[in-house]
Automatic annotation (TrEMBL):
Organism lineage string: Bacteria, Bacillati, Actinomycetota, Actinomycetes, Micromonosporales
Keywords attached to this entry: DNA-binding, Transcription, Transcription regulation
InterPro entries for the chain: ArsR-like_HTH, HTH_ArsR_DNA-bd_dom, HTH_MetalResp_TranReg, WH-like_DNA-bd_sf, WH_DNA-bd_sf
NCBIfam families, per database record: HTH_metalloreg
Keyword Transport recorded: no
Organism: Micromonospora tulbaghiae
Protein's name in the database: Transcriptional regulator, ArsR family
CDD domains, per the entry: HTH_ARSR
Domain of life, source organism: Bacteria
Length: 101
C-alpha cells in the first residue's frame, strides 16, 4: 500500500543518518537501556542542540520513546519499531513446495 510505503520511507530516512544510528546504538547499549541528551553529547562529539535535533527526528519516526523526568528527558528504543524495519527489509521465505504423489 502506498501509505505503508511512504511511512516506511520516512522511518528509513530517519534511520539512515550515521549520527542517528550511533545514537540508537548508544541508547541500546546504555546500562538501563535509556539515555538523556547529556549522556549522549560527549560520546558523539556533538553539541546538545544537534543531539536533541536527531533525537526529535528519531522520536517522530517512532524509533524512540521519550519520558520526561523533572528537567531531564530520557530516551529508549521502541523494539517493535526496530523489528518492523528488519522485517520489512527481509525477503519473505519461500514455502517449501509439496511433492504431489
Amino acid at each position: 500500500m502506498r501509505a505503508d510505503a511512504e511511512r516506511l520511507a520516512g522511518v528509513l530516512k530517519a534511520f539512515a543518518d550515521p549520527a542517528r544510528l550511533r545514537l540508537l546504538s548508544l541508547i541500546q547499549s546504555a546500562p538501563e537501556g535509556e539515555a538523556s541528551v547529556s549522556d549522549l553529547t560527549a560520546p558523539l562529539g556533538l553539541s546538545q542542540p544537534t543531539v536533541s535535533h536527531h533525537l526529535r527526528i528519531l522520536t517522530g519516526a517512532g524509533l524512540l520513546e521519550r519520558e520526561r523526568r523533572g528537567v531531564w528527558a530520557y530516551y529508549r528504543l521502541v523494539p517493535s519499531a526496530i523489528s518492523a524495519i528488519a522485517e520489512s527489509l527481509t525477503p519473505p521465505r519461500k514455502q517449501p513446495t509439496k511433492k504431489v504423489r
